[in-house]
Amino acid sequence: MSRAFVKETEDVEDLPDRPISDLPNDVTAEGLRRIEEALAAAQAAAQSAGVRAALARARRDVRYWSARRATATVVPEPTDNAVVRLGHTVSIVREDDRRQTFRIVGEDEADPAHGTISHASPLARALFGRSVGDVVVIAGGEAEIVEIR
User: Fold this and answer.
1) Which of 6, 68, 97, 98 has the fewest Cβ atoms within 10 angstroms?
2) How confident is the model at residue 52 (pLDDT cuts 50, 70, 90)?
3) pLDDT at 9 over 80
4) Apex CA 27: angle with CA 23 and CA 33, to 5°?
5) How far apart, in whole angstroms, are the C-alpha atoms of residue 48 and residue 44?
6) pLDDT, tens digit, for every residue of 109-133?
7) Cβ contacts of residue 122 below 8 Å, gap of 6+?
């Protein structure tokens, strides 16, 4: 192995850190499991990466997921459906009669395309503490909470 290759892999500069939210890192039990999986995958990638750019990305991901794991607070599943909280699945009906259903989860587990939104999102914050029948103002319009489960 040439010295140039050894030097290249030893002197890898780290990429800037991924931004980490200033909000509490509240997560569901599933969210914690996903963070732990992402951390393990990033650690494995860092150990096996041979290309400088891949190693730098893996190291950055290890730092991010380690920080997220260290600050994660698992919020217990709601025991009642009286008011909206993290972990609930909520159905709303908008002014144009569109019905939308989503689950409120932690920031790192949110995936709106798959029906989950972050507890930090404006929509979730508007819904927290509200009950079935309450009307909330969101995105310049109104929506009624029709189901909490």
Assistant:
1) 97
2) confident
3) no
4) 135
5) 6
6) 999 999 999 999 999 999 999 999 9
7) 138, 139
> 3-state secondary structure string, the chain?
CCHHHHHHHHCCCCCCCCCCCCCCCEECHHHHHHHHHHHHHHHHHHHHCCCHHHHHHHHHHHHHHHHHHHHCEECCCCCCCCCCCCCCEEEEEECCCCEEEEEEECHHHCEHHHCEEECCCHHHHHHCCCCCCCEEEECCEEEEEEEEC
| Calpha distance 32→25 (Å, rounded) | 10
Q: What is the pLDDT of residues 75-94, one digit of tens each?
A: 999 999 999 999 999 999 99
